[in-house]
Design a protein that fits this description.
The structure holds 2 protein chains of 2 kinds. Chain A is mainly α. Helix content of chain A is 78%, strand content 0%. Chain A has helices at 2-29, 34-39, 45-55, 61-73, 87-122, 127-141, 144-158, 174-208, 211-218, 223-234, 236-260, 266-276, 279-307. In chain B, strand 15 (374-379), helix 13 (383-398) and strand 16 form a beta-alpha-beta unit. The chains are: A mainly alpha, B alpha+beta.
Chain lengths: 313, 533
């Protein structure tokens, strides 16, 4: 398994570099000129050209690419065109907010969804099953921003229980940190709760019809033991797979959620950089996102070995 | 009485909720009257207000830097950093002496040498400064606090240019900083303005923090516009970069922010119905929209086709499509904007009959238009540009012009508008933008009011006669003289049509009702004089 893990980690570097090259090419093909944005609407073409020269954007694309790639190989993601700050510093400033949001969202989604899926499977065809799956369908089909605005209106403006927006680092205290993340977590997590709950239910229904479950019942095992000890563990592989897919898909949800709740995370950083055509930031964020995506997939694959002893690498 | 598990759970949950709720409420009711949280017009992308003409960088400049002169509430320049100043009898030599007590944020005194270096850097990037420097024979220090500016001939715009708020503004910086190449961004935040920039608490793209500069010595006069005493009554101002309007609105309603510069007009009724919020138009000059026509290629290289656009455009429809409420917009007939001192009605007969599609069609025919494509750049991420482009393309099609929308983000538009090539090689024919309302008063600093061909602004209109008048406008001394020249310039402009005006609108700002003293002026929102009760 160690060799497999090392091989996969090696492929992560290759994927990050390929994504970097692809993003570089795409950005420079797409219309947009950071020099013109920096110069402002009142600038003349000559002034814009001077800024472009200063930023090195007037160099041939091949020169720009080699420069960027050489810096990347040395672990240098470049410097933001607009704020003149190293990209890695900007990403570092934004990482805690995004990590907080994603970790809380995954925890919330997994805990709620697995419990709901198991319960729905246990009471399949009943009122509880119908209600949970109806809620899941609603959660899956409602866009994140709609849920977000609703939560803000109800819990922040009407009840004034939780803040509308912003992020407070964990170092400022557990409650200030958590209070700013509850609504974004729920808004972002709802779709994943729905997705994971439906897969859990389907997988559990399949397992609950197996002979060994009937045997366990015949032996007098309690409902809790049957559901969680015998059935859930055996239904685990598809659930872990969908959790892995969900985590990867979180990237797009994070962008919207960070915008709606004004969380200064990497998603916002990427969107603002795209609007401004701040090439070094976009390239840096995309390379890091691609690396995270590959590593998440690796972790999912490795988790299979813990759930199912038959899986070997 | 029996105590069931269900009862315990139910009562326990209710009790926990009741206990937690006051704490939660308290957490969000807290409000520091010495800290102002504001959502401004956009993200502060650059900290160099000379390097960029972006308005938000000028806002930052007004917080951190000071100016030699400042515009008062009557739009007259008044001394700000300057104490005593004088002009020689032949009107060719200015002498400026700095007032006492001016300090940089690092505690060192402001000197005349700092100001000379700052003027030189600013003059490279500001069109008024560029013109002024053509006449300057000497700009040098006399002593630590005095400097002299000598001219070949009188240049009436000298002091108004130092006070103007058309970007880039003439902000004073330490000599070492001001000696940076004007086309290279400075990295220092050391100014002598009423606020210091708090780099430690600032998070680029998220929040920008300004602290009161405790050693700032304000002028003794009461505040008037940007002039007079800049008395800071807050300890800290935080610009929160909330990009989502709905979220910013909710944050204002909940009291998490105190000031929202540009709430969307369609959400104003919601704000106006909230007793905790007040809505005020701070900048009565607002913004003026324009349609730039590409003079280099058919059909708008023909004056008749350009004149046709004056008759085709229905300003009322354009304004209504984006701003809805007529309380906030006006149609305009002047190239100098709406109700500015230079605005006039010379040669604007087209305004009385527009829209007149039949006349526009006739003029296109007279221009020899033969069905070539007319590319209208459509910036889909700005409502005004997006809506206007669609309307204009529609009107052109109605009179038989082969109009085609080229949709992209604003970033795409500003790249393409710089292309001088014809349409089939990536060029364009029409793009839409707008400029700050009061800036239209000054044909030197407002680049859209130049007609200097390929050296000038996008669209590249050319008129030597107009340009001669524009230069003369900068040289004369009195308002009456400038107004007379403005009339002549407009007469030429509406004959040759460098652009078509698309109306003027104002954008009300929203703030919590406990916020007082926000100064209403064009171009900049200052935070001195502001209190929170």
């Amino acid at each position: 398994m160690a060799a497999y893990t090392l091989r996969r980690l090696g492929s992560t570097v290759v994927v990050m570099l390929l994504v970097g090259i692809f993003v570089f090419a795409l950005l420079h093909i797409a219309p947009g000129d950071p020099a013109a944005i920096i110069a402002g609407d009142n600038a003349t073409p000559a002034e814009i050209a001077s800024i472009r020269q200063q930023l090195g954007l007037a160099d041939p694309l091949s020169v720009q690419f080699v420069r960027w790639f050489w810096h990347l190989l040395h672990g240098n993601f470049g410097i933001s065109i607009f704020s003149d700050t190293p990209v890695i510093t900007l990403i570092g400033q934004r990482l805690p907010a995004t990590l907080s949001l994603t970790v809380l969202t995954i925890a919330f989604a997994v805990i709620v969804a697995v419990a709901a899926g198991v319960l729905a499977a246990w009471r399949a065809g009943g009122v509880l099953d119908g209600s949970l799956m109806g809620f899941a369908a609603l959660g899956f089909s409602t866009p994140v921003f709609v849920v977000g605005y609703f939560l803000i209106y109800f819990f922040s403006i009407r009840l004034r229980w939780l803040p509308v927006q912003g992020y407070v680092p964990l170092s400022h205290g557990l409650w200030p940190w958590l209070s700013h993340l509850i609504l974004p977590t729920v808004a972002l997590g709802l779709a994943y709760v729905a997705l994971i709950a439906r897969i859990t239910r389907a997988s559990m229904l399949e397992v609950l019809a197996e002979d060994y479950i009937r045997t366990a019942r015949a032996k007098g095992a309690s409902t809790e033991a049957i559901l969680f000890r015998h059935a859930l563990k055996n239904a685990g592989v598809p659930i872990v797979t969908v959790i892995g897919i969900g985590v990867a898909l979180l990237v797009s949800g994070v962008v919207v959620t960070e915008t709606v709740f004004n969380i200064p995370g990497i998603g916002r950083l990427a969107v603002d950089a795209i609007t401004n055509r701040d090439y070094p930031i976009i390239q840096g964020v995309m390379v890091i996102f691609s690396g995270a995506y590959v590593i998440i997939n690796l972790l999912v694959d490795l988790t299979y070995t813990l759930i199912d002893p038959r899986v070997r690498y | 009485m029996t105590l069931s598990r269900r009862t315990i759970l139910k009562n326990g949950a209710a009790g926990a909720l009741a206990a937690a709720t006051p704490g939660l409420r308290r957490a969000h009711a807290a409000s520091n009257t010495k800290i102002m949280n504001a959502v401004m017009q956009g993200d502060l992308r650059s900290f160099d207000p000379i390097w960029t003409t972006a308005n938000i960088s000028a806002y930052y400049g007004a917080m951190v830097y000071d100016t030699l002169f400042a515009t008062d509430a009557n739009f007259q320049p008044q001394p700000q950093m300057v104490g005593k100043w004088g002009l020689s009898e032949d009107k060719r030599t200015y002498t400026f002496a700095l007032r006492d007590g001016l300090l940089w944020h690092d505690g060192t005194p402001v000197t005349a040498a700092d100001c000379v270096a700052s003027i030189r850097r600013w003059a490279v990037r500001n069109s008024g400064g560029q013109m002024m420097m053509e006449y300057v024979t000497d700009l040098s220090t006399k002593d630590d606090k005095t400097f002299v500016l000598a001219l070949k001939q009188p240049f009436g715009l000298t002091v108004p240019a130092f006070a103007a708020t058309s970007t880039p503004d003439c902000f004073m910086m330490p000599k070492k900083v001001a000696e940076t190449d004007p086309f290279q961004q400075i990295t220092s935040h050391i100014g002598s303005g009423p606020f210091t920039f708090n780099e430690k608490e600032t998070r680029p793209g998220s929040r920008y923090v300004f602290d009161r500069f405790t050693k700032y010595v304000p002028r003794s006069e009461p505040p008037s516009g940007f002039a007079g005493g800049k008395i800071v009554k807050l300890d800290q101002v935080v610009w929160q970069n909330i990009t989502d309007d709905q979220t910013a609105l909710a944050a204002l309603e909940s009291g998490e922010i105190d000031f929202f510069e540009l709430p969307p007009l369609d959400l104003l009724p919601q704000l106006q119905s909230n007793p905790d919020i007040k809505v005020r138009v701070l900048d009565q000059s607002g913004n003026c929209g324009m349609m730039r026509l590409n003079w280099l290629h058919p059909p708008f290289n023909n004056v008749k086709a350009r004149q046709a656009m004056l008759y085709l455009t229905n300003q009322a429809d354009i304004l209504k499509a984006t701003f809805g409420n007529p309380e906030y917009y006006h149609e305009i007939d002047s190239i100098f904007g709406y109700q500015t001192p230079m605005a006039n009605s010379a040669n604007s007969t087209w305004f009385k009959s527009a829209p007149d599609p039949a006349k526009a069609k006739q003029l296109f025919k007279e221009s020899g238009y033969s069905g070539e494509k007319v590319i209208v750049l459509q910036a889909t991420d700005f409502d005004f540009m997006n809506n206007s482009a669609q309307l204009i393309a529609g009107w052109l099609k109605e009179i038989g012009v082969n109009a085609e929308l080229a949709a992209s983000t604003w970033g795409g538009v500003i790249t393409r508008r710089a292309v001088m090539a014809p349409d089939d090689k990536g060029g364009w024919d029409i793009f839409i933008t707008y400029g700050s309302g009061y800036d239209w008063n000054n044909p030197i600093t407002m680049v859209a009011l130049s007609c200097n061909g390929r050296k000038g602004w996008f669209g590249w209109p050319e008129s030597a006669e107009y340009e001669a008048l524009r230069r003369q406008w900068a040289l004369v001394s009195t308002l009456a003289e400038r107004q007379a020249i403005a009339q002549k310039m407009q007469t030429i402009a509406w004959n040759v049509v460098p652009q078509v005006m698309l109306g003027q609108w104002v954008s009300p700002a929203a703030m919590r009702s406990n916020v007082h003293g926000v100064i209403g002026m064009p171009d900049i929102i200052p935070f001195w004089n502001v209190t929170k009760t």
